[in-house]
């Protein structure tokens, strides 16, 4: 039995999304059908829409999502109908060598959790429709393996909970798991969208003595102060000018740099502003083929490190619990990260709203769609 869902369909790159009824399969053994409440627009969704990242069309994008479990497959043990959940693009098996070493975002069995014998989603003509990361949350319901879902307590509202699935997991995760930031440290965060804002908040949680936010937009820097930035630097399109401004604030260099933009220039900047023994952590996704150029002498003589952290090297299931408790204590400000909320029928405008200078996270309210 298939469920009719209201969906925003990507028919080809560089086209506006089309609102269409599609048909979602019933949950197989370990799958869960979730009614969508809110979905945030992530930079990667926009990169797929414009064709900078590729996905076979037609497809339903959307992955930073909250919702309520409606139906579960016969072998689902951890979740039940009525559970409030958020999703991750990197479900983990919990049993492979990477999962056992505490690196679930590198799970070797990711494909197994998405493997199924018939299409998840089809059009009214029965043609298969793809889903981004096996989720496809720009729809009134979606179907995922239970390992892709974490539960959220009743006191965390759904319109902020969705952020936990991607930008908080990545930005805060990179600070909590990918670095060893202590109160003695100085941190620079390059890019103050959702991921950068989350990294700033996590650096504050860890007590870093100086947190410098860097962004092209003054509005984002104002918000960055609210999230815990002690200093802000308005970036110039000339990365060397930005480097000089950062050097004036901290002449001996920074102990940590977090890059949340996804450009070679900003990733190289993150490395160049490090002091001796500093670590640059690159979070921004870059298309295949991009290269970084870093000064080799500074790397070796200064004991510096350059590392990637895909999705912040997060540990989704335990991290969501941690973030919910920090939200409850008032130490993680999810509300201020939501700068626009639009109804599902206006999802194309939501992509335009992402480009506004003040935009940190744009949400689409799917709670009334398709019912
Ligand atoms: Zn994302
Ligand atoms: Zn695994």
TrEMBL record:
EC identifiers of the protein: 1.1.1.1, 1.1.1.284
Q: SUPFAM superfamilies, per this entry?
A: GroES-like, NAD(P)-binding Rossmann-fold domains
- Per the record's keyword annotation, is Phosphoprotein included, yes or no? no
GO molecular-function term, one example from the UniProt record: alcohol dehydrogenase (NAD+) activity
Keywords carried by this UniProt record: Metal-binding, Oxidoreductase, Zinc
Domain Enoyl reductase (ER) as annotated: residue spans: 12-364
Q: Which PROSITE patterns match?
A: ADH_ZINC (PS00059)
Q: What InterPro entries does UniProt report for this protein, alphabetically? A: ADH-like_C, ADH-like_N, ADH_Zn_CS, ER, GroES-like_sf, NAD(P)-bd_dom_sf
Per its UniProt record, the required cofactor names are:
Zn(2+)
UniProt cross-references to PANTHER family, sorted A to Z? D-GULOSIDE 3-DEHYDROGENASE (PTHR43350:SF19), NAD-DEPENDENT ALCOHOL DEHYDROGENASE (PTHR43350)
- Record-stated family: Belongs to the zinc-containing alcohol dehydrogenase family.
Q: What is this protein called?
A: Alcohol dehydrogenase/S-(Hydroxymethyl)glutathione dehydrogenase/alcohol dehydrogenase
Organism, scientific name: Nocardioides aromaticivorans
